[in-house]
Amino acid sequence: MASKSVATFISRPSPTPLNPRGLPTEGPRETLPIAFEDDVATARFADMEAFARLWAHAVTDGALKVPSPIEKRFDSPVGCTLVIGDDRFPAQRLRIVDDSRAVVELMPSPALLTCIARHAREHHAGRPVQQPAGVARKAERFETALDVQFADVPHLAARYAADISRGGMFVACKPQPELHQKLPLRMRLPTGQQLEIPVVVVHRITSGAEPGVGVQFVGTGEAVHAAIQELLQSYERRRPRVLVIDDEAIWRTTIARALEPMGVDVVTANDGREGLNKLTDLLFDLDLVVLDLHMPHIDGRGLLERVRRHGNETGLRLFLFSAAGPDELRALGEEALANAIFSKLDPIDVLMKRLAHELGKPPPDLR
User: H/E element holding 122?
Assistant: First the structure.
């Protein structure tokens, strides 16, 4: 007979000897019903959107809290199946982190992480992205989540376009078609319209976080060109969103005033605790985060560790902007938790030019 408990995502771990930063407890923000049967736990969600709301908290919190009493005691990791809509993810585990507080840790499977990444990409569709290395820039590229299919390569069917321009796109796939190979590519637009486009492979990325190929459109007809043009025009109306976390008002104001005329929405947080809350709530809507290192409540390093190590979130761009000494910044750079590190002792335009580049905007005029 199945027993039921309620697991609650905690918004902050309580201070423990393993948590020397003394992060405060602020508590439960989301709940997750779990049914236990034998040694397997099952949680059900209506769809990925429902699960993603909880996962956004897990990314930065890294734990679940199961209140007492629990009918079973877990002396070792137990199996956990997540049912999300019609999909099942059986390769989950729950592990006790702190028996006195009944805190358990969710260990996601690679398949679930892939679905979460796809969900995040769908939320970011239409945001400017950098050109893949080696692909000639024909036009500004935009992040997409379009379903595509290489019609003549069966083992590469059912892939997705990671970004698109008026002259081509980057298709995430593994393995990759050969360089210079000509292929018909079928693409389904958000409107449901189906396009078939002849393409040629102009670049291959065989390793790294996102293997795939850059393809160039060849012989595109007027109908196809018009459909892509309409799609890109809808993307161009989207505004990038940046979160700035700094306890000094002068830096929050300076960055916001430079970004807003560029067509960027800026959200600010006064300290690490508020920044973590906003990061959690806006995780799938953010393009980039700029954060200070030394802040009250939760410092920049703590935030970076939450996102990168606890949550395994590698897609969100995180820029550290600090007045810390060069040795401390260099040590953080070696840990590779931030995408880039900038010193407040350098001219502000160093940071702003990089932000403009990352967001696909022209460099700001700071005179």
Answer: helix 110-124
